[in-house]
Design goal:
GO terms for molecular function: cadmium ion sensor activity; DNA binding; DNA-binding transcription factor activity; lead ion binding. Helices cover 59% and strands 11% of the residues. The protein has 112 residues and is mainly alpha-helical.
Length: 112
């Protein structure tokens, strides 16, 4: 069981990761499976350096891990429990957002 200090540290790391839109986009892209920084940069329309910097942050936060493949390194979500947690979080937030759409207005579109 985690102590209250460990739980606080974990939530703060998650908050740091989710506080930046680029890191959020990277986490959503990694929901589809492992990827290389160059792939992610092309997919998201970002520079490779920008992607590498944000992936380093996500790694420091404990949310992504790496695997060496020759001279290249792929990134993936740290484990399936994080994938499920992100999916659950999206469902919760989407459900709340959908409940608060005024009548006659279109619901927000989720991409990623």
């Amino acid at each position: 069981m985690l102590t209250s200090e460990q739980r606080l540290s974990a939530i703060q790391r998650l908050g740091r990761a989710l506080a930046d839109p680029t890191r959020c986009r990277l986490l959503l892209a990694l929901l589809d499976g492992p990827a290389y920084p160059a792939q992610l940069a092309d997919q998201l329309g970002l520079t490779r350096q920008n992607v590498s910097n944000h992936l380093a942050c996500l790694r420091e936060c404990g949310l992504v891990s790496t695997a060496a493949h020759g001279r290249q390194t792929s990134y993936t979500l740290v484990d399936d429990s994080l994938r499920h947690a992100l999916d659950d979080l999206l469902r919760v937030v989407w459900g709340v957002a959908a409940e608060h759409v005024p009548p006659g207005e279109a619901e927000p579109v989720v991409t990623g």
